[in-house]
Write a structure and sequence with these properties.
mainly beta, Porin, 16-stranded antiparallel β-barrel, 43% strand
């Protein structure tokens, strides 16, 4: 179950004429979120289990995340944005033994506890390049209600790569849309992040009428799924680039295409080297962490498409690939991923704010990665002690019921075939329930 309490207060624009910076419209932003997700996994078939296996017994789990956002417009073009989080997070079986994590809010290190931490703090600078302007919805990531249509934007500080790259209007919001990690993100996108999902970085974006180009340099963790970031930038960093094209008319609606590329440099191990080391230690199991070398390179690509087919039907698709020789380091243990889905808005059954979503995902491993697991190796998520390889196939569906006054209730069901890419285990069913409460000026009755 997910309960999201959003409390926001913003100042309204004061006329259309110039005003002093002390009277800026939307000068302040304050908001908060409480997110709770409850899940149930029934018993499933498993011929064997390993150190990172999903236990086959039935299980219940829940996660809770509290987020407080704050923002301040220093000038019309400069903003400071901050968020603080407190999390108690535990997915079914600590989210082990599966690439498509069933609850993106469940930390991969539940032992971190609930002590509040500073999640984001960044400076945003906008440089206008023309007189034409476009309307914006103020929010925690940007306080302006309108911006130059052609502009440069710069951000620097602690941020989440996933807040800006590989976004999709149909499949990127786990609290209101699909709940599986590889439906909300490109499963093969091993983006820069610590175990909580954040990095320090510098982001530059150029916006034009029909396209956007963004580039970010971010820090990588010192070890796979680690909390500590490596500040040795010449040897440890991540480059991310994405071209977003809001294209020509298709089916009377404009699609959005995003082309992604990334390159990670970090102290990463090699699956092939780990396998090769077994000859020197007969009877042992491969350990990819023991082969880690500084400035190792892992790269990948992605394609992200969203299409508004009609006023009530949307579709999306993602494809991703990474080179698969080096260990999965920050996100899902996947070297290939493809997904597609649809969203039906409730106006067809006289429930305008309701929605139904259905998606399918197929994740895969490289040859080196699967051989490593077959020999008993462990990653930070996967490790059954053996592997009868098969693509991890996921089907997911949700219904979002809008109750009124900003309250939505969203049951979700996921079916995972070959969890952890293992034909000897599964299929696994996971049922979830989320409640989303949105409190803003509208739901409180203010205009």
């Amino acid at each position: 179950m997910a309960l999201t309490l959003l409390i926001c207060a913003t100042k309204q624009a004061v006329g259309q004429t110039a005003v002093p910076d002390t009277e800026l419209p939307n000068r302040w932003w304050v908001s908060g979120e409480i997110d709770i997700i409850g899940q149930h996994q029934p018993y499933f078939r498993a011929l064997y289990s390993g150190p990172n296996s999903l236990p086959p017994e039935k299980a219940w789990s829940s996660s809770r995340q509290l987020t407080l956002f704050a923002g301040l417009r220093l000038t019309r073009s400069t903003e400071v944005l901050v968020s603080v989080e407190s999390a108690v997070e535990a997915g079914v079986s600590r989210t082990s033994d599966i690439a498509g994590i069933t609850n993106p809010d469940a930390a991969r290190s539940p032992s971190l506890g609930s002590k509040p931490y500073l999640a984001r703090y960044m400076i945003r600078q906008v440089i206008g390049l023309g007189s034409a302007r476009t309307e914006q919805n103020p929010g925690p990531m940007g306080l302006s209600s309108d911006l130059p249509q052609r502009r440069l934007e710069f951000r620097f500080g602690k941020l989440s790569t996933a807040d800006f790259f590989d976004l999709n209007a149909i499949g990127s919001e786990s609290r209101l849309q699909f709940l599986n990690w590889t439906t909300d993100n490109n499963g093969a996108y091993d983006y820069a992040a610590d175990t909580r999902g954040y990095t320090f970085g510098a982001l530059a974006e150029y916006y034009d009428r029909a396209w956007t180009l963004r580039f970010m340099e971010g820090l990588m963790p010192t070890v796979a799924n680690g909390l500590i970031l490596d500040w040795s930038i010449p040897r440890s960093r991540s480059e991310n680039i994405e071209l977003e094209i809001r294209g020509a008319s298709l089916l009377a609606r404009s699609p959005t295409l995003r082309l992604l590329g990334y390159a990670n440099h970090a102290k990463m191990g090699s699956y092939r080297d780990a396998i090769g080391n077994l000859s020197a230690s007969p009877g042992s199991k491969p350990d990819v962490a023991s082969t880690a070398k500084r400035a190792a390179l892992k790269y990948g690509f992605g394609i992200n498409l969203e299409q508004h087919v009609t006023s009530w039907l949307d579709a999306y698709g993602r494809w991703g690939w990474n080179e698969g020789r080096h260990e999965s380091f920050t996100c899902a243990e996947a070297n290939g991923s493809i997904s597609a889905g649809v969203r039906l808005m409730g106006e067809k059954w006289h429930r305008r704010r309701d929605a139904i979503g259905v998606t399918v995902v197929s994740n895969s491993l490289s040859g080196d990665h699967r051989r490593y697991l077959q020999l008993g190796g462990n990653g930070f998520l996967l490790g059954d002690g053996d592997l009868n390889y098969g693509r991890e196939q996921i089907t997911a569906m949700y219904y979002r019921y809008y109750w009124g006054r900003g309250i939505s209730i969203s049951p979700d069901i996921q079916r995972i075939v070959h969890p952890g890419y293992n034909r000897d285990r599964g299929p696994v069913f996971v049922a979830s329930l989320r409640v989303h409460v949105n409190i803003d000026r509208t739901t409180l009755g203010f205009r």
